[in-house]
Known about the structure:
The structure is a single chain. The protein is mainly α. It is built from twelve helices and seven strands. Helix 2 packs antiparallel against helix 3, helix 3 packs antiparallel against helix 6 and helix 6 runs parallel beside helix 10. Benzoyl coenzyme A (BYC) binds next to helix 2, helix 5 and helix 9.
Amino acid sequence: MSEVIEGTQQAIDYSQRIPNNVELxxxxxxxxxxxxxxxxxxxxxxxxxxxxxxKLQVYLRTAVSVDKGGWANFGYVRMPEYRWGIFxxxxxxxxxxxxxxxxxxxxxxxVPGEYRSTLRRIIVTQGDTEPASxxxxxxxxxxxxxxxxxxxIFQVNVEEGRHLWAMVYLLHRYFxxxxxxxxxxxxxxxxxxxxxxxxxxxFNERTGNWLAFYMFAFFTDRDGKFQLSALAESGxxxxxxxxxxxxxxxxHHMFIGESGVARVLQRTCEVMRDQKVSxxxxxxxxxxxxxxxxxxxxxxxxxxxxxxxxxxxxxxxxNFYTGGLKGRFEETKLEDDHSLGNDxxxxxDMEDGHIVNKTVPALTALNARLRDDYTREIQAGxxxxxxxxxxxxxxxxxxxxxxxxxRKIGNFAGHHISPDGQxxxxxxxxxxxxxxxxxxxxxxxVESLMGQVIEPGKFANWIAPPARGINGLPLEFEYVxxx
Length: 483
Ligand code: BYC
């Protein structure tokens, strides 16, 4: 991959030190600044990326074009040599700002002065999540359930690294010195560090085992999808174009999460059916993850991910929208005036210690709306999961907890709400918390199952094999080479 791939704007120039399709070589100052950031990125990867992996050869996909059909090239790569680069979808010259006060103006190719600090803040917040997730997952390779899964987590990790590049390009290209300082700081914060943590709470939680990883990829990467979709509507065209390409990569991460949890459920339900057991202790004794534990992980990951949408009522979100900076999910497909000045939105809130239904100005409820769009997709995923116990005759269904359950941000923060939506006293909630959230014992048990399985075609006992391999290859393929 040493030449320019054909096809004008779709092309990615791999002959450059930083692969790109933004004609980086025509802006020498920018190119130099990014070439200075590049070794700092590689140092960060060595320090906090997947441990002990620099010599492994991993069967990875690399973007060769931003064209919808065939952008991926598969081959063995040593991860520090992965070609991280800058890829934006092609510019549509006729694109306009599609919502808010500037609706109808040509989409901005430069940052409007009045929105400079707000846009920078949004881009930094998005950018900060990407390295954070790599840091959260850095030890998981040591306990992978198969080579197939090992390759998948590394694919996710290198692509999150590329998503960091995507935001860093915007910071360097459009925000001058402040942008360069923010890009540097993105490599300095660390997930879970008490002195210099990542910005959003969920990105400081531990991802200590593979069940947590699949849950994270299902629940939290899907927040990524919804936030990126909202930013892909931005009037600031370079942000919209980079988010559009990031979304194509995000889809595979969510697949890994959804199919990962499905395979855990499949294996547990098969063992329960074949061995005729349902008691959690007996299920655990057979070396698979009991269904109650799976439900508690769902409760945890869903609730911490809801916090990532910010407060349900948010003047920030209203201002982002009015300014044309961050739209709604599928903004241009929605049929209304795209200004929301007179619109209302129905949502739940807390009043005098009770959960009440309320109608509020739609402009202030945009975080709640995006969260509701997200929950609809999550619920559809749970319905797919629930076909597994149903088919195997196991009377269990995974359920989403009430949106107020275990919240630290927004209307419900500070209240004690059970998964079925009862408002409780602090004492009563605490007494029952271990039924609802993974306990230390649950973590210990799940972690006791984790052991590195690296024989091609073999899978750990607690997870079913996937339906098919990567890129049409068999499950026995050597997805990671250790030599
Ligand atoms: N933790 O009005 P509010 C992804 C702060 S995931 C800590 O409620 P707003 C990925 C907030 O910053 C997607 N602090 O919220 C997935 C604000 O502080 P300031 C990431 C929080 O601003 C897997 C204050 O509280 N992308 O890509 O309407 C793997 C009041 O804010 C939190 C984005 O998030 C929190 N959870 O919305 C890899 C998109 N929530 O400014 C990657 C960009 C809020 O008053 N970000 N705060 O000091 C945004 O659009 C908004 O910042 C948020 C918050 C939606 C996050």
